[in-house]
Write a structure and sequence with these properties.
mainly alpha
Length: 408
């Protein structure tokens, strides 16, 4: 019988998390449980010490949510929110034992790349499964192409996922591919090209503006800031240009992005952009009534619902959240809590910059950009992977990785 070292058990736990997007919605907590068990084995066997600073910084959102229970009125909603965002506490707790350990879990770059590839392939396989399932069971090829983003959120019991989160998984896959070295031979170029094509193809089927703009900005910065190769820069610019051209060819994508240049209230024109604009106006109004500490995690969402009810039947019927994570923080935690969160993540960025850990920087920056247009902590598919990747990538030992010196 093969004997596993504690290091191997931990790698296996990480592998389970990387592949967990393939699990049904109600089985994802089991993946967290498996990870927690294997991480605990590693911690106990190696007598790893707890890094309190790492925990407090990375669990700051959850800690502030808990504090807000002291002044929120709707405790039932508050505790449900705490339960929903438990990942923001769980992953910082376990990774706090690993971040400064002499036990170099991620020094082996091959292991890291295999884990990243596991997530990339899982994201692509999940999309292929959705696409082929719809095509072979009920819809024509053209119908699947046009209605893909609606079908994945409605048609498969247990596997339904909001297209925003699936689009974010694909964008993360692109970021990970940027940091996995490409061997210069025909086979590897072909495989990498196929992976990129599939990722971009499914991204444009969903055409979600927030994630696509965020990954576009990250990609531009990556190609011009970190890559010294004119060939790679040219390739990167070519890919971005092709994507822009595709916006004009794809009717849905074209229409979605045109909304950004005609912002108005929903009374004049109902679009996703105008809905956000109207929500932002209402959120700012109620924020001004409790600016310092907010309404608490139990009351913030209901307070917004009531304001939406006053101003628009459409907004109230849609039960919309703020569609901006920072506005959500302001309503729940006020200026004080939101400022603490921002300071904590500035510290994270500075720490990772000092280690040349650009993979962590770009991943967290991507999430930070998407938060401008989405409440990514509202659902498990957002909160689990935000918390996991932001902690996991901070604990990488970059010493043996080829991109540690500014030339990714």
């Amino acid at each position: 019988m093969m004997q596993f070292s504690s290091k191997n058990w931990f790698y296996l736990g990480c592998l389970v998390m990387m592949c967990s997007i393939l699990l049904p919605f109600d089985k994802k907590p089991l993946a967290i449980g498996v990870f927690a068990l294997f991480a605990l084995i590693t911690i106990i066997k190696n007598k790893l010490k707890f890094n309190l600073k790492f925990f407090l910084i990375n669990a700051c959102v959850s800690i502030l949510f808990l504090i807000s229970l002291l002044y929120t009125e709707n405790l039932d909603t508050g505790f449900k929110k705490i339960e929903q965002t438990a990942s923001l506490l769980v992953f910082p707790w376990y990774f706090a034992f690993l971040v400064n350990s002499k036990y170099k879990l991620y020094g082996n770059s091959k292991v890291l790349y295999k884990l990243l590839y596991a997530f990339i392939l899982s994201a692509i396989l999940l999309n292929l499964y959705y696409f082929l399932y719809f095509y072979f069971t009920e819809f024509t090829f053209a119908d699947v192409l046009y209605h893909y983003s609606h079908l994945i959120d409605d048609k498969i019991e247990g596997y339904m996922i909001h297209p925003i989160y699936l689009s974010m998984h694909l964008c993360l896959s692109l970021i990970f591919l940027m940091f996995i070295p490409l061997k210069r031979n025909i086979l590897n170029f072909t495989i990498r090209g196929l992976l990129v094509f599939l990722i971009v193809f499914f991204m444009f089927l969903m055409s979600k503006k927030g994630p696509m703009i965020a990954i576009g900005l990250i990609a531009l910065f990556y190609f011009f800031k970190h890559n010294k190769s004119s060939l790679i820069r040219g390739l990167g610019v070519s890919i971005i240009c092709l994507c822009v051209c595709f916006l004009f060819i794809n009717d849905r994508a074209n229409r979605n992005f045109k909304e950004l240049f005609s912002i108005d209230t929903i009374e004049n024109n109902v679009t996703s952009t105008n809905i956000r604009y109207s929500i932002y106006k209402n959120a700012i109004v109620i924020f001004k009534e409790e600016p310092l500490i907010g309404y608490g995690i139990g009351d913030s969402k209901n307070t917004l619902f009531e304001k939406n009810k006053e101003t628009s039947d459409l907004l109230f019927a849609g039960q919309y959240n703020t569609h901006n994570q920072y506005l959500s923080f302001l309503l729940a935690l006020g200026i004080i809590g939101t400022t603490i969160i921002i300071i904590c993540y500035i510290i994270v960025f500075k720490n990772q910059k000092s280690k040349n850990n650009y993979l962590a920087i770009y991943t967290i920056a991507f999430y930070a950009l998407v938060m401008l247009t989405e409440n990514i902590l509202e659902r498990q598919d957002g909160v689990i992977y935000f918390s996991y990747f932001s902690c996991f990538l901070q604990t990488i030992s970059t010493q043996e990785l080829p991109w540690r010196k500014n030339n990714v």
